[in-house]
Amino acid sequence: MSRTGRTGSFGIVGSVMLAAVLAGCSGFGGNVSLPANAPRVIGPDRDRDHVRLVRAFGGEGRAPQLQQLLTDVTNRLVMATDRPDEAFQVTILNSPVVNAFALPNGRLYVTRGLLALANDTSEVAAVLSHEIAHVTLRHASQRSELQARSALIERVAENVLKDAEDAATAQNQSRTTLANFSRAQELEADQTGVKVLARAGFDPFGAPRFLTALGRSGTSADGQTGDRLASHPSTNDRVSRALQAARRTELPGGETGRLAYLTALDGLSYGDDPADGVVKGRRFVHSRLGVAFEAPDGFSLENTSQAVLGSSADGERRLLFDAADTPEGQSLEDVLRSTWTDTVEPGTLTTGTVNGLPVVTALSNGKEWTFRLSAVRIGSTTYRLIMATRGNRGDLEAIFQQTLNSVRQVEPEEARRIRPLKLQIVTAQRGDTAQNLAARMPIDRALERFLLINGLDRNAPLKVGERYKIVVE
Questions:
Q1: What is the value of pTM for the model shown?
Q2: Sign of the dihedral defined by the CA atoms of residues 219, 223, 225, 227, in that order
């Protein structure tokens, strides 16, 4: 989370928008749509979407050796496609979220989180090949055309026929059509990506290996709901089909490039960037802004460039924590009213203090969600903590007060103790186990994380002389 002005990323948020933001999820395979006639020439003055997108993901990740490896892999893959004359450029995003996507103009993006999950060059090449396939197959323009046709049907039903029920039916049908269309596109990109991967001389089984790791990470776990995951096939289905495609390539060998990849990966920043705050379990600490809070039991937190988002396991309770510079002299009451578009319930606006900091709180009732709002001031910055429950659950007040009471100012000494994490590549020695290597990692659920980033099963023995990833300060 980084601080912004009142008209910046945190701007005006109401109950509908908050619910949508907090319901969002991520996963490799997204394809951001631009107009069908978007230019295929990559250039700073013609690519404002790139600038906005990079800013939204925390900026570019600085890893020269890894950047060179990804560029070389991309060029090699493009030469193996049916469109070797097209231009592509890959950018590392400074985000711990596991994600990769493409713009139709040939911009490819991979996050630090995804790179930390991959274990060899063929796995990250599989990701890039999948995204290149989205572009060469013109999936974005096809989706834009389908969306335009769906929107036209909805407008006709609503404006011409004056039938709201028909409009709602058309909208539901178009969403189903688009979801099915997106799933078909993902599978097509997987199949094409594996073929190109093999043609370029990489191990085609890198694709199912990475998809398996992706499933283990929970990024697109089967059985989850929501528009984002509804548009993607199940992980198990993708792994199965990718395995079949790899077997059908019938090309001998194929390099994995494990040593080269791990060498380039060594020293890459891991997890949250301390400059934008750090999530440790249920705690969030931002050393630069000097603020911290703790979420209730059962909540998981995600730190984004715009805000800290939290959710209970069942998704029925959510939170948002963000910051904004405020005009000098503006009261907290005015801040809360001006940055919340829905109605604040009369008589619920109250002032007070929390841990010596001025605070104002209020209640807002949406159609499906009930919200407890608060604004806390530290120096010239106002922080908003918003808790929400679906419906009118009786525990909202308790979890709101518990979380609000944990909001505090971070002292300079505590801020100095927060150090960035990075990946270190180590060579397994005789007697080393997953448990003793994980014990060197200063993070929560260290063993679980060690197994995940190294693609290991819980009882799998380590190989003497093999290289493994650990997380260090």
A1: 0.69
A2: positive
